[in-house]
Amino acid sequence: MEKPVFKSKEEFIAWFQKKSKQFAIDIIKFCRTLPPDQAARVISYQIIKSATSVAANYRAACRGRSQAEFFSKICIVVEEADESVFWLEMIEGTGFKIDSIELKRLQQEADEILAITAKAKATSGGKSS
């Protein structure tokens, strides 16, 4: 996939807000396809929390009133993105009957979101994770 080119910081912010929100929506839709057992319900709950937190906290970071506030929120975004990667790995390891193509797509998306947010964290004054 070709990497997007942005003419301004504002273009990137709008693109990533849309991307992270769509990721959360896609996770919710994917979780609806998981089996109706206790393990799947627990994993669904956790990954929906982490994926939606990525989008919500990135949005909050962009509205931060200071660099320190941005950094604080972007640290949360990185943690939640990493947690989303973890829960997708758990789904992969469970043996649930799932759409494996969609799972792989979501894993790639989660990895990309994690890489982008970790770089944002590193370039905003913190250490890379």
Describe this structure in words.
With 129 residues, the chain is mainly α. The protein has a single domain, classed as 23S rRNA-intervening sequence (de novo design (two linked rop proteins)), CATH 1.20.1440.60. It has helices at 9-31, 38-62, 67-94, 100-123. Helix 1 (9-31) packs antiparallel against helix 2, helix 2 packs antiparallel against helix 3 and helix 3 (67-94) packs antiparallel against helix 4 (100-123). The model has no long low-confidence stretch (mean pLDDT 91).
Descriptive tags:
single chain; 129 residues; mainly alpha; de novo design (two linked rop proteins); 4 helices; 78% helix; 0% strand; elongated
Secondary structure blueprint with pairings:
Blueprint: H1 9-31, H2 38-62, H3 67-94, H4 100-123
Helix pairs in contact: 1-2, 1-4, 2-3, 3-4
Rg, Cα atoms, Å = 15 Å
Q: Structural class, please?
A: mainly alpha
- Strand fraction equals under 5%
Looking at the structure, the CATH topology is de novo design (two linked rop proteins)
* Main sheet characteristics: none
**What is the H level of CATH, i.e. the homologous superfamily?**
23S rRNA-intervening sequence
The name of the CATH architecture is Up-down Bundle
- Count every helix, treating DSSP H or I runs of 4 or more residues as helices: 4
